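Anyone up for a design puzzle?
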């Protein structure tokens, strides 16, 4: 992890693989395809995502083979206790600001697997995501305030207003999500 306890690209792949295996055993090839499919839809096909190996998870004892397969990629894998602990740690990690495609991937993975954490930790994660959105909104509003009347800005202010509206909508969504978690 980075010094701020946020995930590095290779750790997002770990989160995806371990989270998917938390749902039950999977074939190696199916797991690899599911991880690649999900992560590249958010972040695009980058070496940071594509180069990470499921074999490393096995070597580190986070996943294990439960049944050998006939062909390449046919063996069935499952999560180990160490893998479950690592998954919980990855789900608790911070999300870096500002929002970009990589942080969107991290948030998407958190939302996909957040149900695997205890209720109190789910609420903590929701609060952290709200704080991230509040900081992003404050940053955008500050930038908007520094632009004056917008002379010479072209279409930038319209785009900035769009970003502010999106940040407000995201914040409202996460606040509603937090409230729903509190009701559970």
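Challenge accepted. My sequence:
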């Amino acid at each position: 992890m980075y010094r701020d306890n946020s995930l590095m690209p290779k750790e997002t792949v770990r989160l995806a693989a371990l989270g998917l295996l938390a749902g039950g055993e999977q074939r190696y090839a199916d797991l690899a395809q599911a991880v690649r499919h999900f992560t590249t839809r958010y972040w695009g096909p980058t070496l940071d995502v594509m180069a990470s190996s499921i074999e490393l998870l096995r070597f580190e004892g986070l996943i294990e083979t439960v049944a050998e397969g006939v062909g390449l990629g046919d063996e069935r894998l499952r999560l180990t206790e160490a893998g479950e602990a690592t998954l919980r740690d990855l789900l608790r990690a911070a999300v870096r600001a500002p929002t970009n495609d990589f942080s969107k991937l991290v948030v998407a993975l958190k939302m996909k697997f957040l149900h695997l954490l205890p209720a109190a930790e789910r609420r903590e994660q929701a609060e952290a995501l709200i704080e991230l959105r509040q900081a992003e909104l404050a940053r955008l509003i500050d930038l908007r305030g520094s632009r004056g009347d917008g002379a010479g800005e072209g279409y930038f202010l319209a785009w900035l207003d769009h970003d502010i509206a999106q940040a407000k909508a995201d914040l409202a969504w996460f606040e509603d999500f937090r409230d729903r978690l509190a009701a559970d």
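A detail worth pointing out: The chain has a mean pLDDT of 87.
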